Amino acid sequence: MILSISFGVLCYFIPSTEYSFAVNTSSNLLSSSIKQGPIKKVTSALNATRLQQIPNNIAASVEKIKNIVNTTANDIRNSIRKTINDIRNTLLDLGITLAVVGSIVVAAIAVFVLIRRPRLGLDKVHSPLVKTIGLVAYLVDDARVPLNLRTFEIIYKINTVLVQNRGWKAAKNCKGILNIGNEEVKVYWSAFDERDSMTINAHSVEYLDLFAIVDGEPSEIFSSLSENISKLKSYINSDTLTDTSLRQSLNARIEALSSRFKSAEDIPRIITQGANYGWKIPDERYYLPSEAETSRRIMVDGNVPIEMVKEITRVIVTSENAKRLQEYMTILDKPADFRGTAIRL
């Protein structure tokens, strides 16, 4: 029913609409025919202007596209350049870092090597050590001679320095030298099994005997020695000793002693060890070269002339695998204290 009513209404209004549309169309056509001339001219002019602007718009668009492309290319180039610079700076920083690390590693290795090497030095706090030794001026090894006349000893004070290895590795084949002026004499270690050379273990010390200085005044010692020799000679030539052969041999010994010890100068003040016999009073004096043309080199066989102690003195220790040790010191012409210290470091 609703559809039927709607259809009737539409039929009613359609003719009216067509009539209105016809009237309006006629009016418009009439108005258009009246005003057609001027409007047509304006429209043609507008269309011509639009046709002229078309190429300009295309050029502008192309220019915009070109600018966009150029801008994009510049951005890309700048981006690539920035990336390359960043990579280069990173590599440079890395290179510097590697160089620093390498330097640290090399320095650490060098320090490690130096630490591992033996390092020799003198223990100046505990040096010198002084010990007493009695050296025989003469000895008669015969029970028929009284004990107090058989021998005479001269007391010496051995001055010893402590050679310290402060490193972490043993110092091998260490040898000692006493240098006075232009002269050198080999000195020996206190150990009896390795006197010439010594291995000093890490963080350890060994004792180097430099020299021995006479304990007392040589003049007083000479007087005592001469008195003892006189008593021995008196006993030998007395009626107490009946053995003629023994008397003759002992008299020969006494003559040699008298020739050997003529004065207090024949008792050496400072002596060093010999290579084969250790501590021993030298058999003869050694003179400075100016005193005799035939004199032997000074400091031979352990005698150090007292004139030499004023010269520059050094103690030197060489080693197979350690740096050479060299320390300056002063040898005194007589002990500085009751202990017998004759070294000033």
Written account of the structure:
With 345 residues, this protein is of the alpha+beta class. Helices cover 45% and strands 23% of the residues. The chain is built from 4 helices and 12 strands. Strands 1, 2, 3, 4, 5, 6, 7, 8, 9, 10, 11 and 12 form a 12-stranded antiparallel sheet that branches. A hairpin with a 2-residue loop joins strand 4 and strand 5 (183-189). The radius of gyration is 60 Å and the shape is rod-shaped.
Briefly, what is this?
The protein has 345 residues and is an alpha+beta fold. The chain is built from 4 helices and 12 strands, in the order αββαβββββααβββββ.
Compressed to H and E, one letter per element, the order equals HEEHEEEEEHHEEEEE
Shape: rod-shaped
User: What gyration radius follows from the Cα positions, in whole Å?
Assistant: 60 Å
Class per helix and strand makeup: alpha+beta
Task: Report the helical percentage.
Answer: 40-55%
Low-confidence runs: 1-36, 286-297
Helical run tally? 4
- Give the oligomeric state of the chains in this entry, treating copies of one chain as homo and distinct chains as hetero: single chain
Distance between the termini: 142 Å
For the report, how would you describe the main beta sheet?
A: 12 strands, antiparallel
Residues in β-strands, percent: 15-25%
The overall pLDDT average reads 77
